[in-house]
Specification:
Length: 407
């Protein structure tokens, strides 16, 4: 079984543990458990649990699989993509010197700046600049939030620069930034390696092909693996990143179970029928679009993922005057449906919410369709929620949830 949609809807685990049910149509979110693993990935994880194993041997196997998946010379696994950024930066700072690795993050030495275009200084649940700082690196900002120029990057890459970081993501501005090929050319002309954060990008080969020296992916997003980060690229930099496990990487380590699961997820991706998965996602989008198209003030539009990911979402525009409630109010109402539907609401201030079809189980496309019609035709209930509070929650809710925990 290679697809989530082959899982029947089954709430038995939530119910027996006393956890609230939820249907995720928002995408791969850390706060919702990343993604759902297929039985193959889950079985690989379970098989490793009751056994001892040599971690370096497992990581060497992971390196082979990462090389096959990405075309990289080598790779390793760590706790998350965020950890991968920190370890890759640390490796670029220390090289293969274990004493320097042990000196991080407080004594990184003179060559510890990391050049990043201002428009790439995003927050993906935490700030990318903090992932650099954890390695002892200092972020050297290039350009402005909407424009970075080639000569500005070149000027930033002096002898104190250990690496240049590039982010490919819907989280970053999509104009005015230096294209990756040019970015890599400028960096390489000055002997500076390029680290690419591509945590949720499906393009597993193209970024290395465009000149990246290291590319970092999440194992638990589109790949459907256990929580993990994949670091792929030039062998010397991969080895230097892996060396950090004697230092700052200790708290970011990945265990045998997640190494086994991530390997299975990568192998599965190589064998998966991507066309069939895409067709299922499109079927769900069609179903939803057809069901709500005629509703007053509701305009569902198919939109491609902002990066090159082969994925479409349904963007549901809401005209409050005609629909009876705002996009933010409906998003809130979906969260209170039975079962709660978590829609993609981080841009609700623009007057729409989105639906992501990539984490559906069998029968959920229909369940979501029914919930869409139910909630969108009951504007009176949705209108009870405070739009301003809902907009504030979309911005601050992620942090607030951590503060509210056990309060
Ligand atoms: C999700 C994401 C991360 C963080 O990935 P984790 O594996 O959850 O740590 C980093 N960068 C970008 C662009 C992301 O989308």
């Amino acid at each position: 079984m290679l697809r989530n949609t082959e899982y029947p809807i089954d709430w038995s685990w939530h119910d027996s543990e006393g956890f609230k049910r939820l249907v995720n149509v928002s995408g791969t979110m850390t706060s919702l458990g990343g993604s759902i693993a297929t039985p193959r990935v889950a079985a690989a994880t379970a098989a490793a649990m009751p056994r001892f194993a040599r971690i370096h041997e497992m990581q060497a196997r992971a390196s082979e699989v990462i090389a096959r998946l990405t075309g990289a010379e080598a790779g390793f696994l760590t706790a998350s993509a965020s950890a991968g950024i920190t370890l890759a930066v640390a490796g670029a700072i220390t090289g293969m010197d274990p004493a320097r690795a042990e000196a991080l993050p407080t004594a990184p030495g003179a060559r510890s700046a990391v050049a990043v275009q201002m428009g790439h200084l995003c927050e993906y649940g935490a700030a990318v600049s903090q992932a650099i700082a954890l390695a002892g690196g200092s972020t050297r900002i290039v350009g402005q939030s909407t424009l970075a120029k080639d000569y500005q990057l070149a000027a930033a890459l002096d002898e104190t620069c250990a690496a240049a970081l590039y982010v490919v993501s819907h989280h970053v501005v999509d104009y005015g930034m230096i294209p990756l090929e040019t970015f890599a050319e400028i960096a390489h002309a000055r002997g500076v390696p390029v680290i690419v954060d591509a945590a949720s990008e499906y393009d597993l080969r193209g970024l290395l092909a465009k000149g990246a020296d290291i590319v970092i992916y999440s194992g638990h997003k589109f790949l459907g693996g256990p929580t993990s980060g994949i670091v792929a690229g030039r062998k010397d930099l991969v080895r230097a990143g892996y060396l950090q496990n004697i230092g700052i990487g200790r708290g970011m380590k990945i265990g045998k179970e997640s190494i086994a699961g991530a390997i299975a997820a990568m192998e599965q991706w190589l064998e998966r029928d991507h066309e069939a998965v895409r067709a299922e996602e499109n079927r769900a989008l069609d179903l939803w679009q057809d069901a709500i198209s005629g509703l007053p003030g509701i305009t569902p539009v198919r939109i491609p993922d902002p990066t090159a990911n082969p994925l479409e979402r349904l963007q549901v525009w809401v005209d409050p005057a005609k629909a009876g409630a705002s996009a933010a109010q409906f998003a809130e109402a979906f969260g209170r449906n039975d079962p709660p539907l978590i829609v993609r609401g981080h841009e609700v201030e623009h007057g729409y919410f989105q639906l992501d079809p990539c984490n559906l189980m069998q029968g959920q496309a229909e369940l979501v369709r029914d919930a869409l019609v139910k909630v969108l035709t009951d504007a009176e209930s949705a209108a009870r929620f405070d739009t301003r509070a809902a907009l504030a929650a979309a911005r601050n809710g992620g942090t607030q949830a951590y503060m509210d925990w056990l309060a």
